[in-house]
Specification:
alpha/beta, 13 helices, two-stranded antiparallel sheet
Length: 393
């Protein structure tokens, strides 16, 4: 249905805090398979990943730049060694229910919890810093007025960190990015979606801070333009698929969805912690199925209209039909074809596995966890691509 035979490869990245390292592994696998991404879209940490990919300072190897970013975050996470907290965790690891001993916390779970507590208490100097740190007393005018705070963590260090990885001159119309960048946010005052597109405007650090300014993580809003205050786009949709179709409605698509939150699980939650965890997964899981279905319906209708148009144009005597009516049909067909003619050719769902659900896992920035997540992303992508190798070519 598209106006030419080109197919765009589109990479769509979900939000999810430290779970975003999984997408780094996915992108590494795509690069190794020589799959060139034409559009990269994301929100929250997915928006950060997307911006690094699109504006990478190393155009030949953007996957290396992305991995360096994640490893820098990992290496700057605080290693919490509070003896009191560690003793509490040790005591909670084992409890007795009658004569049966039950392990409540494995070593891996305890390490993940410690890493999360480290993030909560101390932040990460390359990403976000808590406002209660003593040095903020000299630069935060509300330091001694916490009741007036609208956020707890200053994420401006992220903008400084990204200067090492992103060439912002590339993130603008005709800026020659590695891929067209689309990131999303939400207008706090109106609840309206906000879409930032490098093919239409200059993307700056404030746009990236806006797309990742998630209020439940206690990050601040960002004034992206006078009077427009933005929060994380994940509040509206954690999988910005519709925005891609709206931005590029004509060229056919091959979609790669990177999902940090699984839509399906094998069994019901066992306890309140798993209930909260599953609630979060449902809230942030991919909900683009309806949009994809409607896109396919539109494609079928356009094909049907195209067939009817050609039948009329080739078989009906022009003298037997009103010329104005025929021209109206012709113009309506062209308008529909060239405004909404993209066909979704293939969809690849690359979903992060979650064998041990942990409600606090998306704030674990420890070195081992992030490296494992990157490896998992690469491995999972390779598995999916190998199964559908013929569909890629």
């Amino acid at each position: 249905m598209s106006s030419n035979n080109k197919i765009e490869n589109v990479l769509v990245l979900q939000g999810g805090g430290s779970l975003g390292a999984f997408a780094c592994g996915v992108f590494k696998a795509l690069i190794k398979k020589n799959i060139k991404i034409d559009i990269v879209a994301g929100t929250s940490i997915g928006g950060i990943n997307a911006a690094i990919i699109a504006g990478s300072k190393d155009n030949e190897h953007p996957e290396r730049i992305l991995e360096e970013f994640w490893l820098e975050l990992a290496e700057n996470s605080v290693n919490l060694t509070n003896p009191v907290i560690e003793r509490l965790i040790d005591k909670s690891r084992t409890s007795f229910v009658g004569p049966v001993e039950s392990n409540l916390l494995t070593t891996s779970e305890a390490d993940s919890l410690l890493s999360t507590l480290s993030s909560v208490l101390y932040g990460n100097d390359k990403f976000f810093i808590p406002r209660w740190r003593p040095d903020y007393a000299f630069k935060d005018p509300q330091y001694f007025s916490p009741l007036k705070w609208t956020y707890l963590y200053d994420n401006s260090p992220l903008a400084k960190t990204l200067e090492k990885y992103i060439d912002y001159n590339r993130l603008q119309p005709n800026g020659n990015p590695y891929a067209r960048l689309i990131i999303t946010a939400v207008n706090i005052l109106t609840s309206a979606p906000l879409t930032f597109d490098s093919a239409k405007e200059q993307i700056t650090p404030k746009h990236i801070l806006a797309t990742s300014g998630y209020p439940s993580y206690n990050f601040p809003w960002v004034e992206v333009e006078p009077g427009v205050f933005a929060w994380d786009g994940g509040l509206l949709n954690n999988t910005p698929f519709a925005e891609v179709i709206d931005a590029s409605p004509v060229i056919d698509k091959r979609l790669f969805f990177v999902e940090n939150y699984p839509r399906k699980i094998e069994k019901l939650p066992n306890n309140l912690s798993e209930v909260y965890h599953r609630t979060r997964d449902i809230m942030f899981s991919d909900k683009s199925q309806h949009g994809i279905k409607m896109s396919k319906v539109i494609t079928r209708y356009l094909k049907y209209i195209e067939e009817l148009y050609h039948i009329i144009d080739e078989n009906i005597d022009p003298s037997k039909i009103d010329s104005k009516q025929l021209e109206k049909i012709r113009q309506t067909y062209k308008k529909m074809k060239y405004q909404r003619g993209a066909e979704i050719r293939k969809i690849f769902h690359i979903i992060r596995d979650e064998p041990f659900p942990r409600f606090y896992e998306n704030t674990d920035f420890s070195v081992d966890t992030l490296k494992t997540s990157i490896r998992d992303g690469e491995s999972k992508t390779n598995q999916i691509l190998e199964k559908k190798e013929n569909a890629i070519i």
